[in-house]
Design goal:
globular, single chain, about 30% helix, seven-stranded mixed beta sheet, alpha/beta, six-stranded mixed beta sheet, binds flavin-adenine dinucleotide
Length: about 375
Amino acid sequence: MEYDILIVGAGPSGISTALHLAQLAPQLAARTLVLEKAHHPRPKLCAGGLVIDAEVILQRLGLDVDEVPHADAGVAHFDFEGRGLEVRVPHTHALRMVRRDEFDAWLVQKARERGIAIQEGVTVTGVAPGPDGVKVITDRGEMYARVVVGADGSNGVVRRSILPDSAVHTARLLEVLTPPPEGASGHKAEGAYFEFACIPDGIAGYTWDFPTQLKGRPMQCWGVYDTNLLADRARPPLRDVLAEEMARHGYRLDDYELKGHPIRWFDPFSRFAVPGVLLVGDAAGADAILGEGISIALGYGRLAAQAIQSAFARGDFSFRDYRPRLRRSPLGRALTARTWLAYLYYRLRWRWFQRLLWHRLGGLVVAVAWLFVINWARRSR
Ligand SMILES: Cc1cc2nc3c(=O)[nH]c(=O)nc-3n(C[C@H](O)[C@H](O)[C@H](O)COP(=O)(O)OP(=O)(O)OC[C@H]3O[C@@H](n4cnc5c(N)ncnc54)[C@H](O)[C@@H]3O)c2cc1C
């Protein structure tokens, strides 16, 4: 079977691209193959926090995320030194936590049920766009397609092949899973916590602490996110920052397995396509301010499917308009705002400022977040 569209990576961005193609242009979806190096369910380091935008996109695809095992946080706390802002969403949870092996395997199953071909255990090692199509080099041999979608994550080979000199903006993250707190002082298991106390020390990010589940057993997910925006200054080892936050709640980091992975974040001046090849998800760039990338990956999938549909309709595979369409879209506007907010906010590292912001100006933070950061999916067409 010859395929016109090859999607590299069966994570949320790749599968969302395929599912949106199936929704918007079924004739193109039938000529699409997703290549995935792993076998689902595969491990993916991630806290699995789904924000409202992810749920809106899944609903519009006709998918019921309730089918995936999850833990809900009724309230999200945004704190500085243990005190701050409580965010609730009327009539629903503030954040839903899934395990990514389960969530991604569910998405893959839904795509297969809709007729999408997915080949697992195939590693793409390079792509080479040419005048009549794109050569895709894999560990199983070479393939050719009219369009290739790079959905292969922050360390992806597709971006490296097509844009080898592009600027790199990566955040570093560490994550650990522990049993849930048992009456740890001042700690509510049903809340998701974001703590920004590390900023004055030079970590341009936050520590998190979310309820989650593992095979139905309640667990706690801890982590630390650093945009690297203060990398030019002295800063403590990232591991120590997480260890200190966990110690505040009675946990010893040394007792648990610590894992790390980077996130490429969105640069509005970056390139996201070359003729024949589009980038989506982390390969294109996730949210800079919090490192939130699942809803973003799902959102890119819709834009990529629209761009592919219009390329086939016009017979123009330059994808010259992908970047302006992305930038003008509600997703692109939210990503751009988050990048500028990250540059601004993480440089304001004075303790007095952080206290003022989180302890006194909560209403302002919520208004800015609602306008620029969250709730973009409902505005997407
Ligand atoms: C520690 C951590 C915590 C996070 N927590 C959250 C959170 O709570 N909420 C949130 O919204 N986001 C979170 N994120 C971000 C989120 O995980 C990513 O933004 C999201 O996974 C991006 O999806 P994607 O489909 O673009 O890439 P990925 O999920 O990375 O999927 C890429 C896929 O491509 C495959 N692949 C890679 N290379 C190749 C190749 N050469 N050939 C074939 N296949 C290939 C991979 O196996 C993988 O299946 C977190 C990230 C980290 C690191």
